[in-house]
Amino acid sequence: MEEKKTFNRDTSLLLEIVRFAIIGLYATLIDYIAEVWMTSLIGSAADNVGHLAAFFIQFAVSLGGMLIGTPVTWSLSTVWAFRNVNEEDEKKARTLKGNLKFLMWGFFGLVGGAIIQFIGYMTCLEWTGWGINIIKDINMGNLFSSGIKAFWCYTVVFVLKTGFTTIWNYVTRKLFIYRAPKKEEKSPENA
Residue 191 has what DSSP assignment? Predict the structure, then answer.
């Protein structure tokens, strides 16, 4: 007799990635608004900062965005995105240790994202000759008018950073926090 293959929404890798992407888009929107706002506040006071200071300013802004978005992404990831999780990992993910793992891997992604953001900063400011300072030139008041080049440079760098951290977060969460149950080997009786 031929076995019917059933589609299980909880174990579908594609649907898991779609759920993760939906959460990621929501978190990205929150992160983008928070980072533009914080950059415009800090940037207006950051005249003539050196490159090292610029790196730490961008890192602090990214950290602020992460801290604002993490409670939502952790809860939605635990409850909705990662449904194909072995029972032991599901319980561990909801503990303090699981929360700290989530934050630790997110922090490593944040560092990688900050490096990408700094490379974007240097590219826009010096390496291309554009002279656009994506820290100082971002202002909530001129976001879509006179600072349009700064806005687009900032946005492109943000998208590149977010692309990296999204992939990083999915892979590390899948490998270390929300692992799928191992497929049971077929025994001769079930074959």
Answer: -
State phi, psi for 27 to the nearest 5 degrees. Answer: -65, -35
Residue owning tokens 């820290």: 135
Dihedral of the alpha carbons of 58, 64, 68, 71, in degrees to the nearest 10: 100
Cα–Cα distances (Å) from 127 to 18, 51, 55, 145, 167, in that order, read 37, 13, 16, 25, 27
- DSSP character string of 54-91: HHHHHHHHHHHHHHHHHHHHHHHIIIII--S--HHHHH
Confidence of residue 94 (pLDDT cuts 50, 70, 90): confident
Residue 27 near residue 69, CB atoms below 8 Å = yes
Model confidence, pTM: 0.81
With a CB cutoff of 8 Å and minimum separation 6, the contacts of 79 are none
Phi/psi-derived region of residue 163, left when phi > 0, alpha when psi is between -120 and 50, beta in every other case: alpha
**Phi-psi group of 50: left, alpha or beta (phi > 0 → left; psi -120 to 50 → alpha; rest → beta):** beta
| Nearest-angstrom CA–CA distance, 51 and 122 | 8
Question: Above 80 in pLDDT, residue 119?
Answer: yes
Q: Name, in order, each residue with C-beta under 8 angstroms of 94's C-beta and a sequence gap of 6 or more.
A: 78
Residue 172 in tokens: 């590390």
- Dump pLDDT digits (tens) for 1-43: 555 556 566 678 888 899 999 998 998 999 999 998 898 888 7
Query: Which of 10, 17, 20 has its CA nearest to residue 86?
Result: 10
